[in-house]
Amino acid sequence: MKNTLYIIALLTCLFGFSQKISTLYENANKAVVLIKTLQAEVLYEGGLATMSGLNGFGSGFVISEAGDILTVAHLVQTAEYIIVTFADGEEIEAKVLYSYPLSDVALIRTLTPKSTPLTVLKLGDSDLAKTGDQVFIIGAPYGLKSSLSVGYISGKYTRKPLFNGLITAEIIQSDAAINMGSSGGPMFNMKGEVIGIASFILSRSQGFQGLGFATTSNIAKKLLLEEHAIWTGIQSSFLYGHLAEILNVPQKGGILVEKVAANSLGDQLGLQGGYFRTILEDKEYILGGDILLMVEEIPLTNEENLIKSWYKLQELKPGDLIRFTLLRRGKIEKISEIVP
């Protein structure tokens, strides 16, 4: 008799849990979107310069009735064209408002209102999330919309402050699956609040290996909703050590500009991206573009100075003068530009 009661109680708990997950999913899924992007780039193939387009896709979720959508920076940072597909199939073009690639978070906004009312998700307090808590993620792995994965928080990590006590990265590790296309999707607690933004690029293989990673909602709020992190439109790599020497960087480090999106701040300041893909030390780079050496008087030689330069840019207002030093086609140039 006791065993029978135990089994009934267990089944009741399991049934109740399943119902809760399905209810939370049904309510949240209406606010999760598929994001498709187009990126243009010029590459040398067979000695000829050719223009090509790269199609990308990922996930995002609505956080305001104005059509603001949180997603990942690597998806939209250099995008020329962004289309948002809602759960009901309606598609609307969008633009980038703010982006912070170091934490892989971005905020985009639809260019026109949706024909039906938007479902908005609530950002929870990620500081309250603990290792062992159950979470679920909604995304579009490999373009499959409205996919659900469930798991537990395996750990939380915070990057040590490098400049003025500022923390620029907080990560939640989970065993909930995150694959290409899931990145940008919301990670929920069991109250249905968003506590993280999924990012597959934090995985070494850029795919699921039993561990998934998400930037915390609190960091996303701080960088995008409070500080309004500027959208530079630049895809870049930090060069240091042997790589800096190989590419004749005249200091300990520099920022290789690989792509620049049209109409972005980087484009308006005249920065030039690369055109030749190559692999150096097991990592792919696009060479031929500018190598940034200094922003104002800050040499871009280490991570602390990179963050200092970022906040220097963050302080700029339209009409301000910005000065930077770069290596362009083997020559050092000092450039001054008015911020548009």
TrEMBL record:
<protein>
    <submittedName>
        <fullName>Trypsin-like peptidase domain-containing protein</fullName>
    </submittedName>
</protein>
<dbReference type="InterPro" id="IPR036034">
    <property type="entry name" value="PDZ_sf"/>
</dbReference>
<keyword id="KW-0645">Protease</keyword>
<dbReference type="InterPro" id="IPR051201">
    <property type="entry name" value="Chloro_Bact_Ser_Proteases"/>
</dbReference>
<keyword id="KW-0378">Hydrolase</keyword>
<dbReference type="Pfam" id="PF13365">
    <property type="entry name" value="Trypsin_2"/>
</dbReference>
<dbReference type="InterPro" id="IPR001940">
    <property type="entry name" value="Peptidase_S1C"/>
</dbReference>
<dbReference type="InterPro" id="IPR009003">
    <property type="entry name" value="Peptidase_S1_PA"/>
</dbReference>
